[in-house]
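User: Study the fold:
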Amino acid sequence: MTSSSRAALLARAEIVLSRASTPQPRAEAEFLLAAVLGLSRTRLLAFATEPVGEEEEARFWSFIEQKKQGKPVAYITGETDFCSLTLRCDPRALTPRPETEELVQYVSRLFEPGADPDILDVCTGTGCIALALAAHFPRARVTAVDISKDALCLASENAKRTKLQERVQLLQSDLFENVMGTFDLIISNPPYIASGDLAQLSAEVQQEPQLALDGGADGLDIIRRIVSVAADYLNPRGTLAMEIGAGQAPAVAALFDAGRWEGGVKKDFAGIERFIFARLK
């Protein structure tokens, strides 16, 4: 049997995924074939005429079949890259997004290199934010909390995988319920999808844990709870940084007492007002 080339497999897979109404079918196919072959997408495409072995091809088509059913790529491959870390990813937690990487990049500029901030990551999920900040600030003290025991197990696996388990304390907590002490930074990517919008999400997103998505009637239930008590857990001049949904910035900004907080909104790479930064006066 003649082996198919990488380019030929990608062309066929793109057609299959296009017929299944998969967003960005070519890119998805490239990610999946690169994962099967253990290559970067750049190297995959640079040597696109190389043949693919029968076992690898069979695995690739099993991945494509899962993608047709709307399964997130990171759940299919079992891992995802986030801020230079390779993390385990599965249905126990939300798949880390590029926007959340932007949030980490923004907050990384809040402190000087070599700083030793106390950081609290609320709704940690995979642990991506906490681990990325622990890696960026080797002297930081990082606490990461989540209400989901399953998510914390995944975060623990990722802490060990990145060799940061001694740097990040994981704690099961309904937001601040079990949190002790104060912090220089509280950061969160909380659930912010309005309950009524969940059914309209893509098939891919609907396979992710609803607990990590559902923000209540207007999407702001968890955000309101965070803002209402965050000041009690911040050091003087401490910062609260959050990722929020498209169109939510005015309503979220209105939750902050202007006499106590200062800050503003930052846009993501798509120009959407995606991040709230508020510092205690």
